[in-house]
Amino acid sequence: MSRISLDLDVLRSFVSGVEMGSFALAAQRMNRSTSAISAQLKKLEEQAGQPLTRKAGRGLVLTPAGEVMLAYARRLLALNDEAVQAVQGSGLEQGWIRFGMQEDFGESLLPAILGQFSRAHPQFRLEVKVARNQQLLDGLAKGELDLVLAWDGGQPWPYQQRMATLPLCWIDSKSSPLACVPGDAIPLVAFEAPCLMRTAACSALEQAGLAWRQAFCSSSLSGIWAAVAAGLGVTVRTAAGLPDTLQLRQDLPALPEIQLVLYRAEAAMAAGAERLSDIVRHALHGYLYGLSRD
User: Fold this and answer.
1) How many whole angstroms separate alpha carbon 243 and alpha carbon 107?
2) How far apart are CA 250 and CA 171, in angstroms?
3) Exposed/middle/buried for 213, CB within 10 Å: 0-12, 13-18, 19+?
4) pLDDT tens track for 159-175
5) Which residues form a coiled coil (predicted)?
6) CATH superfamily of the domain spanning 169-255
7) Chain-centroid distance, C-alpha 280
8) Theoretical Cys-Cys bridge with 152: which of 95, 118, 240, 259, CB 3.0 to 4.6 Å?
9) pLDDT tens for residues 49-92?
């Protein structure tokens, strides 16, 4: 029996279509016709010997075989890109790159980014700062950081790219969930002001006519998670980096969405920083897709 060799170009179209939720949008991103992308998907399904997607309303969803193919496609593409970057990067001069990231992604996303970048570009020194939003944006403005992944706080910055729009959520303890008693103030666990999530939580409660009190204040996200897990109160974040001890809560006032942005210190960055930017985008898209499937 002859071995089947999967086409990486076809796999890249497949992954892009799934992550964007539309193969037509993937075709636009890749500067190809929709029919060309459809032909690639058909070829991949023929190689797999079974359908990889099925219709669901007006869109497409993955079949069980499609889920398996997606996982392997991501791994194959990541390894391919890492190999190319390692070879092309072998001629790059040594450099120093300063990268800042929101605490929400420190444990869930940062290890993959550091591992891939350090393997592909061992000649670069990478300095990472995991901190709160305002600290990161201040560092960018002061020239202390080259690349920052942070929430959009409404501050104008000329060199930025929106990565995702995520819903804010009420978060509660799994083992000691808050028992809401009519007339009682909602105990709120939050960062010290100023904080985007704190402001959103207070505004939502006040607009709903609900009283609230500060039950716990912390300067670190780990402190927030610990206080909520202990049952001291509820907090507001996205689902990114949510510990297993916590759960989303649906019976409190509606919350807005928040933008996740990749900020650059300048329009044209050094080669190493550009490579890191590509790795961050790729890792983030894969992580957020997995988050949406949970």
Assistant:
1) 10
2) 9
3) exposed
4) 888 988 999 999 999 99
5) none
6) Periplasmic binding protein-like II (3.40.190.10)
7) 9
8) 259
9) 888 888 877 777 888 888 888 888 888 887 887 777 666 655 45
Q: For 231, how many CA atoms within 13 A lie in the half-sphere containing its CB?
A: 7
Domain boundaries defined on the chain: 8-88, 94-164+259-293, 169-255
Q: Describe the strand order of the beta sheet including 246-249 as a list of residue ranges.
A: 235-237, 169-173, 246-249
Topology, domain 8-88: Arc Repressor Mutant, subunit A (1.10.10)
Give the CATH fold of the 94-164+259-293 domain. D-Maltodextrin-Binding Protein; domain 2 (3.40.190)
Which pTM value belongs to this model?
Answer: 0.69
Q: Does 177 sit behind a cis peptide bond, omega within 30 degrees of 0 on the bond before it?
A: no
